[in-house]
């Protein structure tokens, strides 16, 4: 996801999502590369597309709730729709350098 193309409100949401930590991996969803898009519409509803590192993850609902909660903490965001998507398929190459170092992954 390209942070430079986001509006100021979308950047605020993206920054808030950096605080959403995957409880199993101890790394933010942003650094894991799981947040695919953030949009805030004219009604201040936030639309987030996100994915998982693996199919069948047992904490989907927890992650979804954490994403929504983080977005709703941004001033002016009235609602949040977090949509779980499976395309493009996630790969470790989508992780930030910070996530790779934290998890000991060398690509």
Automatic annotation (TrEMBL):
It comes from the Bacteria. Residues 10-83 form the MIP18 family-like domain. This is MIP18 family-like domain-containing protein.
């Amino acid at each position: 996801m390209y942070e430079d193309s986001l509006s100021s409100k979308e950047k605020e949401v993206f920054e808030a999502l950096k605080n959403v930590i995957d409880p199993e991996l101890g790394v933010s969803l942003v650094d894991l590369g799981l947040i695919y898009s953030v949009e805030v519409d004219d009604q201040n509803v936030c639309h987030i597309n996100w994915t998982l590192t693996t199919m069948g993850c047992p904490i989907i609902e927890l992650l979804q709730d954490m994403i929504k909660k983080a977005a709703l903490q941004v001033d002016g965001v009235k609602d949040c729709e977090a949509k779980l998507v499976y395309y493009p398929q996630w790969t470790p190459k989508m992780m930030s350098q910070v996530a790779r170092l934290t998890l000991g992954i060398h690509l």
